[in-house]
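Contributing new complexes? Match this layout with manganese (II) ion.
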Amino acid sequence: MLTKQEVLFISDLHLSAARPATTQRFLRFLRQRAPAAERLYILGDLFDAWIGDDDDNPLNGAVKQALHRLADAGTAVYLQHGNRDFLLGERFLRETGCRPLPEYAVIDLYGMPTLLMHGDLLCSDDLAYLNFRAISRTPAWRDNILGKPLWLRRLGARWYRWRSHWHKAKKTAAIMDANLDTVKETMQGHGVTRLIHGHTHRPALHDLMLADGRPAQRFVLAEWDDQSSVLCWNSEGYRLESI
Ligand SMILES: [Mn+2]
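Output block (do not edit by hand):
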């Protein structure tokens, strides 16, 4: 077998029955592209909504099976929660062979400590969202939601999506972007000069300077839409690959 030497990063696929082309592209990526990698990091919002590990719709089944096949083929798959799929739980991990990442995950990337985040915590100007986030990550909130029957959760997800769409329309672009001070404080707090995150759907590579004068880099991953991109690292450096 070939040595697997690459490390891949993706985020914000927002898989849902409403976007079958993206799902197909992702399944093909898992089958054909990802097995060449040593590690695949999925930095949140793999699904557009996740209402519980017991949701056995066909899309979830196909994705779970493909992830497991990849893990079985020797690629380590790491999963971070996004703001849309933070209810992904233990059972999902068991059924896919994915390994969980904490909301701030520092990994070694070819000798360089690198912080991985979904990115929603960087949008610190969006106080209404951060407030909801704090409440919705408590065990009580979670148990309450997951204790409801599946049909009710399905209905709730539709309502939530509609409401979130409507709320977003009222927020300014600046509020929904990462706050630069928060970015710098977070990086400095974790002792890194490299950060990779998604969530904002504003793909870019930002050069910045930390308060202690060290130059730093922030990679913002793209959402998977009509186009898909993958951030690929190997010992030589990085490149963006379109799928
Ligand atoms: Mn997100």
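Reviewers usually confirm one structural detail per submission. For this one: Residues 150-170 form the longest helix (21 residues).
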